[in-house]
Design goal:
2 copies of one chain form a homodimer. Chain A is an alpha+beta fold. The first copy, chain A, is built from 9 helices and 9 strands. In chain A, strands 1, 2, 3, 4, 5, 6, 7, 8 and 9 form a 9-stranded mixed beta sheet that branches.
């Protein structure tokens, strides 16, 4: 008879980076549990069902240029651990019909946790100015930006207002009520709140239409539920002249989720998780899959590597 | 009794510019006849069914940043002609679920014809280099570019090869067989064949992945069936080293549709009709809908206005 020791195979923990278009999904949960990653992972025929622990759970309709997750794979006895490139191609093959893609994968130690290792999250919000009606949004930009009504926005006023969001504040006014979220501290530190001109898909071919793309960028260790969408909506209200820049400061000081003006919520369509900074990984470069390896390197910068005391990569 | 003269209402001819994402449609015909423009136009309650005469019919999966069409609207007796802005908003309202948008509309004389007035068509083909596998195409670029296998392409060789396509040639080798198309002269004059670096959707946020976007641009009075896709495919084969630049010249000289190498057909996903040059319209500016009027002005340049002997606008 085979020994009991032979029947136990070790589990291998992986960190994966992935991107997705959120339009189709009512919640990232849908991607994970039914139509996306989780289902694709079952094709790896693990001994124990595979669970993805996501660094940043995004809301309905929100997109991600780069998100990350860790997962454990326990194979049948005697089977070697999957190579990273095999894991990537197997997951992507089964994800093919879905608007979600694995960018890269790395073996990590069992103590690495994708969510708790995230030192910062950076979100991009895409605004389209110059539309008098939503039908003027280019067909290739649908569900990928927000075109607030009322034409052009007062960008300098928005930039003044954004300064009030920088630093450490109680963001209760900028947190949507959410019974599912555990009660956490409403105090967050915003280290970046920028407004920059940007471009649209092939927009250099229709500059004559007078449309302008702008990007709002926010960076923090973490954000409250719908905090970015409330911050963007309030800044747009400033750009429209519905609020003055100093109203942002007053909203913060109210520390009351009910105090947020209901007209000022930005839709999910313009929001993209751009990158994550993970602690304790060091630069992620691998000769095995050079075209994917860059993602980790960009998401996990020197800042993250220095902050960690140990290296979780294997 | 009402006089017979009162029962006859005059028809009004309009020129409309529109854009669409071709991925969803098996043929633009589908858009026109069943799910798109034609159906939307019936909501205008015309006396006679409305027919769209398209400037450039595009093939399955091909996109358009700007295409144009003319249509006649005959309303019930006593009803005034639709204002352009009313026509735009009515069509767009009914097109809302479809990835197609009316950009602008102009009243024109009854002798104006959208197809016969087109002095030139400009197509853009988007290439993505640096992918070793199609799963590396960003999710936001799916069906909007072509990522040929084999990594980076030899762009200088492609640029050399493109020179052979410029000027007046018999393009029989670059025309796909099509029993539906009337037999027309295979002699065409290519006035532009450029290869330029470009950018992808939000690609400034993932430059680290080593992906490169390029655009091939072709301009001619008209093109043969699938001519642009055959030209692009042949240039990519040169970039991959499968063909030498001088092979393009030899393919042209064969003047035989069967001589085209079957491996070298570019897919429709990367192809965009970028603009049209219409004759006899002059600059199209209107204070009534300033954000849309620009499209016509860009598509109908001074060249077109000079070439025409009459002004068809009303």
């Amino acid at each position: 008879a085979r020994s009991a020791a032979k029947m136990v195979s070790p589990k291998t923990r992986y960190l994966v980076f992935f991107q997705y278009c959120g339009t189709k999904y009512s919640f990232l949960f849908m991607v994970l549990s039914r139509v996306g990653l989780q289902k694709a992972a079952q094709n790896l025929k693990p001994v124990v069902p595979i669970k993805f622990h996501i660094s940043s759970r995004t809301d309905s309709g929100v997109h991600a240029l780069c998100n990350s997750a860790h997962l454990d794979i326990q194979r049948a006895p005697g089977k070697p651990a999957f190579q990273e490139r095999v894991l990537i191609s197997c997951l992507n093959r089964h994800l093919k019909p879905e608007p979600i893609r694995i960018l890269s994968a790395y073996r990590v130690t069992d103590s690495f946790h994708a969510r708790f290792s995230a030192l910062s999250r950076t979100y991009i919000y895409r605004l389209l100015m110059g539309c008098t009606h939503h039908s003027e949004i280019p067909v290739f930009e649908r569900d990928l930006c927000w075109a607030p009504t009322g034409g052009y926005l007062n960008v300098p006023a928005m930039q003044d207002a954004a300064q009030f969001l920088l630093g450490t504040h109680d963001f209760s006014t900028f947190c949507s009520p959410n019974s599912n979220a555990p009660s956490r501290s409403p105090v967050k530190t915003i280290v970046q709140a920028d407004i920059q001109p940007s471009s649209g898909f092939l927009s250099h071919h229709y500059e004559y239409r007078g449309l302008e793309f702008w990007e709002l960028k926010f960076k923090s260790r973490s954000f409250l539920y719908r905090q970015v969408r409330r911050m963007v909506g309030a800044l747009v209200a400033v750009g429209q002249g519905k609020l003055a820049p100093h109203h942002i400061k007053e909203l913060l000081e109210m520390k009351d989720t009910q105090a947020f003006p209901s007209f000022a919520m930005a839709p999910s369509s313009g929001l993209f998780l751009q990158s994550l900074l993970l602690v304790g990984l060091g630069p992620l470069h691998s000769g095995a899959f050079p075209t994917n390896a860059g993602c980790g390197a960009a998401c996990v910068s020197g800042e993250g590597a220095q902050a960690g005391n140990e290296d979780h990569r294997l």
